[in-house]
Amino acid sequence: MKTTLIRPIQRGFGGATPKTRLPLTTTISHHRAFSLSRPPPSYPGHVPLHPIERTALAIGSALGSFINPRRADLIAACGEATAQPYFIYRLRDAMLRDATGRRILRDRPRITSKSLDVAHLRTLAPNTVGRTYVGWLDREGVSPDTRAGVRYIDDEECAYVMQRYRECHDFYHAVCGLPVYREGEVALKAFEFANTLLPMTGLSVGAAVTLKRKERERFWQVYGPWAVENGLKSKEVINVYWEEWLERDVDELRAGLGIEKPPDLRDARKKEKERRRAEREAKGAQG
């Protein structure tokens, strides 16, 4: 009896037989497209990201903004990349739980020099929210039109929440009286982190290590403790309908939110400069 040896069928890349095997380049291209597939944009300007891309963006933008804190584009990208999947939804839900927050989400106002009529704000009474805000803009040389549009937040409603937070940032500066000096920005980011829990604001507090020695001391002794205490105890600042407060008293707003204004940072820096100048003059006179 003759025995027939049956050979197993050899299969090529991807399980195909030699006759039906796809070219190697075609197979690799197919798998790459599958692994990095993106959904369509959810709103104009939206850039959907694969999780790997989002992670890379978060790390790269965080490092870049730490090296150069003036790179607003990197700070914005870091804020969006790290806000998902949890933190921006938590902030959106905080707005949904609040009657004013829900109205803001429904109306979706934008903060620009035209929507606020900056020229009109300069005519308001000195202690109004609008005059305090525009006074801060003029003193710091800042414009409300410089806030970049949100690109990397996937949910369309959450994208607006991030945009609203971004455009309200200067109102937080004005109400708290903090200038745009680096230590003022670090103090405000600490306040925002305690109030909003957005990771980017917490990461920004790490810039405290880049402050000068006297600035670091002032931050840890005065402005850091103020930021944590007031950020935790105050109401959610994202729920302030700033457009409706422009002609009302700024002290009334602070009291309603539960925010205590910190010591004047500009005045503290001025006194420190005067002290150093006096010391140098005294040493020069002795020499």
Automatic annotation (TrEMBL):
Subcellular location, record wording: Mitochondrion inner membrane
Pathway participation: Cofactor biosynthesis; ubiquinone biosynthesis
Stated name of the protein: 4-hydroxy-3-methoxy-5-polyprenylbenzoate decarboxylase
Gene: COQ4
Spans annotated as Disordered: 260-287
Residues annotated for Zn(2+) binding in this entry: 169-170, 173, 185
Main location: mitochondrion
HAMAP family xref list: Coq4
Keywords carried by this UniProt record: Lyase, Membrane, Metal-binding, Mitochondrion, Mitochondrion inner membrane, Ubiquinone, Ubiquinone biosynthesis, Zinc
Task performed by this protein: Lyase that catalyzes the C1-decarboxylation of 4-hydroxy-3-methoxy-5-(all-trans-polyprenyl)benzoic acid into 2-methoxy-6-(all-trans-polyprenyl)phenol during ubiquinone biosynthesis.
Cofactor: Zn(2+)
Organism classification: Eukaryota, Fungi, Dikarya, Ascomycota, Pezizomycotina
Ranges that cross the membrane: none
Subunit structure: Component of a multi-subunit COQ enzyme complex, composed of at least COQ3, COQ4, COQ5, COQ6, COQ7 and COQ9.
Domain of life of the source: Eukaryota
Comp. bias intervals (Basic and acidic residues): 261-287
Family from the record: Belongs to the COQ4 family.
